[in-house]
Design brief:
The chain is α/β, with parallel strands linked by helices and 299 residues long. The chain has 8 helices and 9 strands. The strands form 2 sheets. Strands 3-2-1-4-5-6-9 form a 7-stranded parallel sheet, with helices on both faces. A two-stranded parallel ribbon has the order 7-8. Helix 1 packs across helix 6 and helix 2 packs parallel to helix 3. The longest helix is centred in the middle third of the chain and has 21 residues.
Length: 299
């Protein structure tokens, strides 16, 4: 597939783009900084500038495409990850503006260019727990995609607005638009560097609902979304199968979620941020666990 990918130079994108290239896709990365990886085409553009996004959405990806002599090739899909990645980087109103306007521009330009598959990055923060002022507990566990999304911060607000924007575009056009509520992205080198701290102090993972997503498994999730057509508008939790701390489900419930309703029985290492919908509808099967890279006894 010929794919335009926004934000491919970011923490998540710099792993997802190579994964997609490894699957045989052609990727044009649109970002404020290029991604230095073999086979990646880059275009420097600002997603908040509608004119720039409309231009790159209908342009050559590289000089080699000129040789075909057939004009500009159509895009098969757009994957939109570009954003200010959390609060406390830029002013709150700027975070909201960039993330909401950028998403509107990307989806609008994609659909007007004839693209029928758009995948966009939403966030675990939409559930209101990650950036809460003080402690906010889930309304129930495990958290599925039906859990209320009532965030209190500008970043998570922007993601909830983006989901509404995407749903409206899908209703108007009938295209496939899938939103990924991505949990805390972990790069391969971070296991040895930071996970021993989580073994010693599981409190550090409370705001992430004790969950995580390996960056390579996020690549698989995007690839599965590209392969499965006809779902219309859907949102999916994206997380690995297990908790990010060396505690059992019962231990974590006893310490953190004693009064939180449990909707079903859970496995003793099963994530509270359930990926069941992605498994059932997309065939997503995470391949990486932190336990493959860190000895719990090292904590």
């Amino acid at each position: 597939m010929r794919i335009l990918f926004t934000g491919g130079s970011g923490k998540a994108g710099r792993h997802v783009v190579p994964y997609l290239i490894g699957q045989g896709h052609q990727v044009l990365n649109v970002d404020l900084e290029p991604l230095d990886h073999p086979g990646v085409d880059n275009r420097i553009a600002d997603i908040t500038d509608a004119g720039q996004i409309f231009d790159v959405m209908q342009s050559y990806a590289n000089l080699g495409e000129l040789e075909q002599g057939e004009g500009i090739a159509a895009l098969d899909a757009v994957v939109h990850f570009a954003a200010i990645p959390r609060i406390l980087i830029k002013p709150d109103n700027e975070t909201f503006r960039v993330n909401t306007m950028g998403t509107y521009n990307v989806i609008d330009a994609a659909l007007k260019a004839g693209v029928r598959k758009v995948i966009f990055a939403s966030s675990e923060t939409t559930y209101g727990i990650c950036f809460a002022d003080g402690e906010m507990k889930p309304q129930y566990i495990p958290i599925d995609e039906e859990h209320p999304t009532v965030p209190h911060d500008s970043y998570a607000m922007s993601k909830v607005c983006n989901e509404a924007t995407a749903r409206s575009f899908q209703a108007r056009t009938g295209a496939d638009i899938y939103g990924l509520r991505i949990n805390n992205v972990i790069e391969p080198d971070e296991y040895a560097r930071i996970f021993p701290n989580f073994i010693d102090d599981p409190d550090q993972r409370r705001r992430n609902i004790f969950a995580y997503i390996d960056a390579r498994d996020l690549g698989q999730m995007v690839a599965r979304c590209l392969q499965v057509d006809g779902l219309g508008y859907e949102v999916f939790n994206v997380a690995n199968d297990d908790h990010s701390v060396d505690r059992t489900t019962d231990e974590l419930i006893g310490h953190y979620y004693r009064e939180v309703p449990k909707t079903r029985e859970m496995g003793q290492n099963e994530t509270f941020y359930t990926n069941k919908k992605a498994r059932d509808m997309l065939g997503f099967v995470p391949e990486h666990s932190w336990r493959d890279y860190v000895d719990p006894a090292a904590g």
